[in-house]
Design goal:
Length: about 100
């Protein structure tokens, strides 16, 4: 189910990109399509993240030892710093919060 939701999310993103291109070409009606997919994507993300937080991560906490979890966290932090750069995480959180107010 979680993997299917990832694919569904990618579909919404592709549709939003397509709609934005059509809006840029002067097709005002495509803005409705853009907003429809944006709203659906936000809803999907909220529900998906809730499942991760309430089910998936709790299951992981039960089976992954604490020392392994600390090691994983360190690896995530290193990857984020090397691949995205300092402050990128906060930047994207701020963007998501701003977008959430629009939808």
């Amino acid at each position: 189910m979680m993997l299917a939701e990832h694919e569904e999310g990618r579909g919404h993103v592709r549709s939003m990109i397509d709609a934005m291109e059509r809006v840029a070409q002067g097709n005002g009606a495509a803005s409705t399509t853009l907003m429809d997919h944006a709203r659906a994507y936000v809803t999907l993300l909220r529900e998906h993240i809730q499942k991760e937080d309430d089910i998936l991560f709790r299951m992981a906490d039960e089976v992954i030892p604490e020392d392994e979890q600390r090691k994983l966290l360190k690896q995530f932090e290193t990857h984020e710093a090397e691949e995205m750069g300092a402050g990128a995480h906060e930047k994207y959180l701020d963007m998501a919060q701003d977008l959430g107010h629009l939808i």
